[in-house]
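Subject: for your reference before the review

Hello V.,

The reviewers asked for a structural picture of the protein, and I figured it would be easier to keep everything in one thread rather than splitting it across files. Below is the amino acid sequence we used in the manuscript, unchanged from the supplementary table.
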Amino acid sequence: MHVVVCIKQVPDPQAPAGSFYVDEATNEPRWSPPAQDQISTFDLHAIEAAAQLRQAHGGRVTVVSLGDAEVEVGLRRALAGGCDAALRLDGPAGSSADRSETARWLAAAIARLAPVDLVLCGRLAADWDMGHVPAMLGELLGMAVVTPVVGLEYDGACFRARRLTDEGQEVLEVDLPAVLAVSNELNEPGYPTMRAVLQAQKVPVTTWTARDLGLDEPADRAAARLLRLLPRDLTRECEFIEADTPEDAGLLLADCLRAQGLLAAGAKGG
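And here is what came back from the structure prediction:
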């Protein structure tokens, strides 16, 4: 079985909000320490799922990511986590590439890696939080798509994927090849050993360009364009209500809320 895992490198979503800002000249998000690049949260679960499948059923796992040379850090982390080969697609990334362009590059790479039995992705990326790419991949590759997957069984012939729905959960039998977008409920990603980390540094990372994939230039192909990126307003205002008794403080608070239109004019504090 040949499993391809698609990953994305994102800034740490747990970093303080003050670490992030917008570069107005390029209309791109930027961040500073303590925020650091790391593999998107759900992608870690996709890597773990691929490693478990390879351990149980054999085969090989190829990890793929789109971006500049910096994404090799994440690719080597995936190699240490159980992937066999790493592929970097030297194409557009960040806000300059919309999801359809990302899916186009990944689909072209997966087609060239054929035969591919299974494509694993995270259910969504931790930066833009959209989850469009797995469905687009399935459409471009002509594969069935299941998302978000919270349980997975394989009997050697087909997968039984348990997915979340608005009403609860459902179990689907999925014929290969297929695209599965996994959620964090599926497994608990393991920590690579020091030996695995050191061995991953010795594995060459293959790089493919648009020419390698037979892709034309991305200009004017984007299905969506980011017109303007605005930073989140982090300013906060706090007004303390001081009074001699709790009752008086409550009345003063009611007057303050009423003055700001947050309390109906006839309402009384209770």
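For the response letter, the relevant points are probably these. Residues 2-213 form a domain with the Rossmann fold fold (CATH 3.40.50.620). The mean pLDDT is 86.

Happy to draft the paragraph if you're swamped.

O.
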